Amino acid sequence: MRDLLKERCKLVAHEEPAEFSDYKLVIGTNGLKMKATAPGSTPPKGAYALPTGGFRLPTGPREKTTWHYYGATIGN
After folding, report:
1. Are 39 and 47 in contact (CB under 8 A)?
2. Per-residue pLDDT for 64 more than 60?
3. Is the confidence at residue 41, as pLDDT, over 80?
């Protein structure tokens, strides 16, 4: 695709390595605290629908938001 854009549109791209912070899902020292969502349960008010199914609900201040997931799978 790049070669096509370069040839036809005279597009020039420059790549530069960059570092980004990431997040890791780990089990804490007190064990797993996740609970299965009951089938057919209604998501909490204000929850956002996920494209792969389930919902997520943000809580807390913007700089330290905690996300709560309902009916979502980890595999996607």
Report:
1. no
2. yes
3. yes
One-character DSSP codes across 23-56 = ------TT-----PPPTTPPPPTTPEEPTTSSEE
The pair of three-digit structure tokens given for residue 10, joined into one six-digit string: 């005279």
> Which of 28, 69, 64 is closest to 47 using CA atoms?
69
- CA nearest 59: which of 49, 50, 48, 51? 48
Question: Which pLDDT score is estimated for 14?
Answer: 82
* Residue position matching structure tokens 């980004």: 20
Backbone φ and ψ for 58, nearest 5 degrees, come out as -85, 140
First to last CA, the chain: 27
Using a cut of 0.85, tell me whether the model's pTM lies above it.
Answer: no
